[in-house]
Design a protein that fits this description.
By secondary structure, the protein is mostly helical. It has helices spanning about 1-10, 15-20, 40-50, 50-60, 70-75, 90-100, 120-175, 180-195, 195-310, 315-405, and strands at about 65-70, 110, 115-120. The chain has a three-stranded antiparallel sheet with strand order 1-3-2. The relative contact order is 0.05.
């Protein structure tokens, strides 16, 4: 029982939350089992063998702590009150501005696409600074509240002191006049003079009390309506904040998708450019083959004319003709293959053009969607500002009504 009670007191104490969490390991300080004796090589060897030094080195070289842009802004904006201007600002830009004002070493953090990565211990320091800032603000609020309560108590004591002085003065006057005959006569006659006006005064007091009660009931009903409206407004505000947060995430995703589509478009354009260059080179080769074909056909015609003129060399020319025809056939086959390749590349180019058009249309749709989301976000922020203005006006009117009730 004593163990649990002592451990509970330790956990509930304030000093527990002011400490930093650390990893502990069993280390033998010396082999002689003597208190107060530390053998440095032995301790260093144990730390190296159980992996503590390696874990510390890996932890210090990496970025184990990470946090989203929106969460970082909501949690640590109190440390940089003037870093972010009023209005909407991109999460990455806002986090960069906050980090610049915090004067952090650039080697201690890295900014990603949606998160910030910190080295070990950086977030702990930021948390301690945030706790200190909150402590100062809470102390200031407590000081203002205590000062107001002290002023009210002082005013109350002054009123009590004045009332005591009036009672003492009236008591002294009564002690001086209670045995005076004319005072006794006045005290007996005065009630008879006020009998006629007392009923009228009572009636007026009752009417005044009734008016005050009616006004109190109206003020109470108005207060209930204002509280209901305030609750409804706070719920709408929470819903609007959640919707704005979701739209910001959707806008960030749309921006990422637009960047990916733009990159894919550039790659497709480069691939189409390569295809066009290949088609141009194939067309040049085709032109060369056609010129070679024409030259071969001219040679064949010349050989046929020579064959008609020279009957003795007919056999020789027939052999050369056969060879030339074979060569022409090979050239025609090559030309057919070239034409097939050109047709295939033309189809690939058409497919790439269609994919490029689809990509461009998708990019245009994403840009339109981003514009629509931006407009909707501006509209929601305007509605939120109007609701906050209405809430402030209602609170002011409520304060004025509550101030007029005692009167």
């Amino acid at each position: 029982f004593m163990f649990f009670s002592s451990s509970g007191s330790i956990l509930s104490s304030k000093q527990w939350y002011q400490r930093r969490v650390a990893i502990t390991a069993g280390i033998i300080p010396n082999h002689e089992k003597k208190p107060g004796k530390m053998v440095a090589p032995l301790i260093l060897e144990q730390l190296r063998c159980n992996g503590v030094l390696e874990g510390i080195r890996i932890c210090r070289q990496g970025y184990p702590n990470r946090i989203l842009f929106q969460e970082f802004r909501q949690r640590y904006e109190i440390l940089t009150p003037n870093a972010i201007p009023p209005g909407f600002m991109d999460g990455r830009k806002a986090a960069t501005a906050m980090l610049n004002q915090l004067d952090l070493d650039p080697r201690l953090y890295r900014i990603g696409k949606s998160k910030i990565f910190f080295r070990a211990g950086v977030l702990a320091n930021l948390e301690s600074e945030r706790d200190e800032k909150l402590r100062v603000l809470i102390i200031g609020i407590q000081a203002l509240a205590r000062g107001k309560l002290a002023v009210e108590n002082f005013k109350k004591l002054i009123q009590q002191h004045k009332a005591i002085q009036v009672l003492q003065r009236n008591g002294k006057c009564y002690l001086k006049l209670r045995n005076w005959q004319w005072w006794r006569l006045f005290t007996k006659v005065k009630p008879l003079l006020q009998v006629t006006s007392r009923d009228k005064e009572i009636h007026e007091r009752e009417e005044e009390l009734k008016k005050v009660q009616d006004q109190h009931n109206k003020d109470k009903q108005t207060m209930e309506e204002i509280e209901a409206l305030l609750k409804k407004t706070m719920e709408e505000r929470a819903l609007l904040n959640e919707q704005i947060f979701r739209e910001k995430e959707m806008a960030a995703e749309a921006d990422d998708q637009r960047v990916r589509l733009a990159t894919k478009k550039a790659e497709l354009e480069e691939y189409i450019h390569d295809l066009e260059e290949r088609i141009d080179s194939e067309e040049e080769k085709n032109m060369k083959i056609m010129s070679e074909k024409k030259r071969v056909e001219g040679t064949i015609a010349e050989l046929e004319a020579t064959l008609a003129d020279e009957g003795n060399a007919r056999q020789k020319l027939s052999i050369e003709k056969q060879q030339l025809e074979n060569k022409l056939k090979a050239i025609e086959d090559s030309l057919a293959n070239r034409e097939d390749n050109i047709a295939k590349m033309t189809r690939d180019k058409a497919q790439m053009d269609a994919r490029l058009k689809d990509t461009q249309s998708a990019l245009i749709e994403e840009e339109d969607k981003g514009k629509a989301l931006t407009k909707q976000k501006v509209k929601l922020e305007t509605m939120l500002q109007e609701l906050e203005d209405k809430l402030q006006k209602k609170e002011k009117s409520t304060d004025c009504d509550s101030a007029l009730i005692p009167l």
